[in-house]
Design a protein that fits this description.
alpha+beta, Ribosomal Protein S5, domain 2, 5-stranded mixed beta sheet, 14 strands, binds 4-diphosphocytidyl-2-C-methyl-D-erythritol 2-phosphate, binds adenosine-5'-diphosphate, nucleotide-binding, isoprene biosynthesis, 4-(cytidine 5'-diphospho)-2-C-methyl-D-erythritol kinase activity
């Protein structure tokens, strides 16, 4: 049976304002998201049985990721923080189930998920896996012109999923301005090459929990200045206009994040902020060299306990490799 392989990227919210609370339990958001080259690995195989099987493992190994985070992964034990659900609470399983139902597909899928993107970090790992899974499934079944149905499935799975579907699908750079609850997308035609240092502090935050702590601003800040600077590739003005309205509510739940932000700032990463609802923080580096040097310095200061990576915006969609049966 056919196999599809791809590498779902994480995202950073470079700008995130929340203009209003809605009556349906969601918030209106005004955000600029960029995909970054911190990626999971996804392999999807079509199988004759009418079910979805999923296995998930950390890359390069659970011991190595646990070691960086200062967690014990001895004797085959997976620390709580690194447990990835393999039942229908995994967004990949939910998305593929919705795919089968929407298209009346009788056969099933076997999924192998290689995780690198921390969960509950505000980096959208699960959403990206889900979006890429349905894109792979459409390619396996050779369904053409189905982007509207896929978009419908994506937004039913989560507000951030359509962004990753757009990045899976398109030839344009992988950044977008998102509004509504996150599902209304205007892809950005240019995306400057930006280097970041991203830091995940070995604690996850629940998106719903952080939104619940938010006080919606009386005078929301518009994304217009940030978007203008982003389109021009003006790093300095971009830096001045970056913001994340969810920082304050996330800090109410996890005040220690302030120390991590302070450490990034002290190394010369300016500005630095949370991505999405956290818990990962990132700072804008001047270039790849500065980002690498700062990661090296922070590794000695902060590890074990914090996952640190240099990340970069990605210029084009990740190809899906199809291996015919
Ligand atoms: C905060 C953001 C910023 O990009 O990212 P993450 O931190 O999750 O990565 C997103 O808005 C998260 O999107 P996503 O993670 O897909 O959220 P969903 O599964 O749709 O919703 C989870 C819960 O978050 C809250 N929620 C989510 C989106 C939104 N626009 N308003 C909300 O209030 C709701 O309480 C909802 O029940
Ligand atoms: N494919 C997946 N990979 C990782 N976590 C997943 C996946 N599917 C569901 N989850 C669950 O989703 C939650 C967070 O999802 P994720 O998208 O990584 O976080 P965030 O919303 O912070 O971007 C975690 O609690 C995790 O258990």
């Amino acid at each position: 049976m056919t196999i599809a392989r791809t590498s779902p990227p994480a995202k950073l919210n470079l700008f995130l304002e929340i203009p209003a609370r809605r009556d349906d339990g969601y918030h209106e958001i005004d955000t600029v998201m960029a995909a970054i080259d911190w990626r999971d690995e996804l392999e999807i195989e079509s199988i004759p049985q009418p079910r979805i099987e999923l296995t998930a493992d950390w890359l390069p190994s659970v011991e190595s990721v646990a070691g960086e985070l200062g967690l014990d992964a001895g004797a085959g034990r997976v620390p709580e923080l690194l447990r990835i659900p393999t039942d229908d609470s995994n967004l990949v399983v939910r998305a593929l189930a919705a795919f089968r139902a929407s298209f009346g597909v009788k056969t099933g899928f076997r999924v192998r998920l290689g995780k690198r993107i921390p969960a509950g970090a505000g980096m959208g790992g699960a959403s990206s896996d889900a979006a890429h899974a349905i894109d792979c499934a459409a390619q396996i079944h050779q369904f053409d012109n189905v982007s509207e149905v896929l978009h419908g499935i994506a937004s039913s799975i989560g507000s951030d999923v359509p962004f990753f579907l757009a990045t899976a699908d398109s030839q344009s750079p992988m950044a977008a301005h998102a509004t509504g609850r996150g599902e209304l997308l205007s892809p950005l035609k240019t995306c400057p090459s930006i280097h970041f240092v991203v830091a995940y502090p070995s604690t996850s935050l629940s998106t719903a929990g952080v939104y619940a702590q938010l006080n919606v601003p009386q005078q929301p800040v518009s994304s217009a200045s940030f978007l203008q600077a982003f389109r021009r590739g003006d790093r300095e003005r971009m830096g001045k206009a970056m913001m994340n309205r969810l920082t304050e509510p996330a800090l109410k739940i996890l005040p220690q994040l302030n120390e991590l932000l302070e450490s990034l700032w002290q190394c010369g990463l300016q500005p630095c902020q949370l991505t999405g609802s956290g818990s990962a923080c990132f700072g804008l580096a001047k270039d790849a060299e500065q980002a690498k040097e700062i990661v090296k310095r922070l590794e000695t200061e902060l590890q074990p306990g914090v996952l640190l990576r240099v990340a970069q915006t990605v210029p084009a969609a990740t190809p899906i490799e199809i291996e015919p049966s």
